[in-house]
TrEMBL record:
NCBIfam families: ImuA_translesion. It comes from the Bacteria. Gene3D superfamilies: P-loop containing nucleotide triphosphate hydrolases. Keywords: DNA damage. This is CDP-6-deoxy-delta-3,4-glucoseen reductase.
Length: 207
């Protein structure tokens, strides 16, 4: 008969999963927004996972939300891939936000090939973060993206129309762009790994 090990010692050593308690290896990747990190159960973006941003339209603050993370990763020498963006990224603005442009890869793809390219970049293991705009991804396609992000140990960000909010998603984190009481941009957590979704929205600070 094997040695009996006390449950508390297993928990303390982080070798046993405990409901409602995130292990040290499951802590999130800092978002660059302290108030958002404080809201999320893992303290940041879920690592090796897909995050879904649900948007009422393009340009509602999604890049302002992501640029601090992309800047930190690229400045550390990691590759950030942007797959089939709907608009050409404005390099001076990305550079002003701290993104090392030499670490930024823009992947051009047709709408037909964009989902495949997104998945391949996530799975490659060559990227620290990948942004994509999957227009017609169903639950099965999103699950492939989630698995690819896990396999490639990558942060995946899927920017999608908020009409998809009513559909179930395998993404580890879902944020929806909403308006706060002052008419500014805010983000409501619709789903998150590691705990219940917080009721309070995160409002982006305006410059």
């Amino acid at each position: 008969m094997g040695t009996v090990v006390a449950l508390d010692s297993l928990l303390a050593a982080q070798t046993l999963w405990h409901a409602g308690r995130a292990s040290a290896t499951a802590l999130g990747e800092p978002t660059g927004h302290a108030a958002l990190d404080a809201l999320l159960p893992q303290g940041g973006w879920p690592r090796h996972a897909l995050t879904e941003l649900l948007l009422p339209a393009d340009g509602v603050g999604e890049l302002a939300l992501l640029l601090p993370t992309l800047a930190r990763l690229s400045e550390a020498g990691a590759t950030v891939a942007v797959v089939a963006p709907p608009y050409v990224p404005y390099a001076p603005a990305w550079q002003a936000a701290g993104v090392a442009l030499e670490q930024l890869e823009i992947v051009q793809a047709t709408p037909r090939d964009a989902l495949w390219a997104f998945e391949q970049c996530l799975r490659s293991g060559a990227c620290a973060a990948v942004l994509g705009w999957p227009l017609h991804a169903d639950a099965q396609a999103l699950r492939r993206l989630q698995v690819a992000a896990d396999s490639g140990r990558c942060l995946g960000f899927a920017l999608r129309d908020r009409r998809h909010a009513a559909n179930p998603s395998p993404a580890a984190l879902r944020l929806e762009a909403v308006r706060d009481m002052h008419g500014g941009s805010a983000w409501q957590v619709r789903k998150c790994r590691g705990g219940p979704a917080p009721a309070r929205a995160f409002a982006l600070a305006t410059p």
